Amino acid sequence: MSPSAESVIAASNAWSWVPDNAVSVETDEYLLVRYPNYFVYPLELIRFKPTGPVEDAMAAVLDRARRFALPAMHWMVRLDSPAGVAELLEARGATVAETLDVLALGLSADHTGCPAPSAAGVELRWQTDIVTARDAAAVNVAVFGGSMPPEDRLAKNAARDSATVPAGVGGMLVAYVDATAVGTGGVTMADEVARLWDGGVARQARRRGVYRAILAARLAYGASHGATMALVKGRIETSGPILRRAGFAAYGQERIYRVPL
Predict the structure, then answer these.
(1) Are 177 and 118 in contact (CB under 8 A)?
(2) Domains: count for the chain
(3) Range list of H helices, 78-179
(4) Of 166, 186, 188, 208, which has the fewest Cβ atoms less than 10 A away?
(5) What is the Cα–Cα distance from 103 to 10, expressed in whole angstroms?
């Protein structure tokens, strides 16, 4: 059964993530996160719910962001963002960095969700050791940008997934072809929602079914741990079309703006 629009929008709006090595500035009106420098977007606004005039709240965010002494920040315009935010950002010189489809698929206990659950020659491994964690990070840098995390962070990622994967909480999958890491995809369980993130494939391995193999494994994991919905925010140019062909439906779009400071 397809999830309702209301349930998808609520689940999308509830989805935010702040790593334990980030600096967050949180008020009743916004959540601003300064990620480590190896992230693609070092400074990002991930929640904005002003209680008064939108322009005044926006000015307060930008004033606080400038204290990090960076040339720009990124601002996520979510499904629940106030009307007119995008126009106000553009008036300040902001440009669209990414456009994401909010996509969802209904899951059941016996539903793996993808019509092609595997691809010839693709091996999938969970990121539960330092070698696989390093491979995952390298693929993510190649696909999404940013730079390699330090070794101690890779070790923490592996230790975390060693605990969360068997516990049914989720983790990162890495796809290999001929013993070379070529793709990644994460899944995190939140109540009955399987949140899918960081799904990407290195350019040289595309059109071989790698993404679909990673997708199928994550959907099977979510379904086996009680998820009734898979939720993903897919880039409209790359993963979005694949997800639609796999049965996902779109419920709206979110945009990430680059805002000069």
Answers:
(1) no
(2) 2
(3) 85-91, 130-144, 151-167
(4) 166
(5) 13
Token pair 């099977």 is found at: 220
CA distance 93 to 215: 37
Please determine, for residue 160, whether its predicted confidence score (pLDDT) is greater than 90: yes
Instruction: Tell me, yes or no, if the pTM score tops 0.90.
Output: yes
- CA gap 153, 175 in Å, rounded: 21
Residue 222 lies in a domain: yes
* Tokens linked to 96: 């669209």
Q: Which amino acid, one-letter code, is at 224?
A: S
> 236 lies in a domain?
no
Range of the domain at 136: 108-227
Q: Which of 102, 103, 104, 98 is nearest to 255 (CA)?
A: 98
How many CA atoms lie less than 13 Å away from 40 in the CB half-sphere?
A: 13
* pLDDT tens digits along 233-261: 999 888 888 899 889 999 999 999 999 99
CATH number for position 122: 3.40.630.30
CA atoms of 32 and 75, how far apart (whole Å): 9
Closest residue by Cα to residue 211 from 135, 105, 139, 108: 139
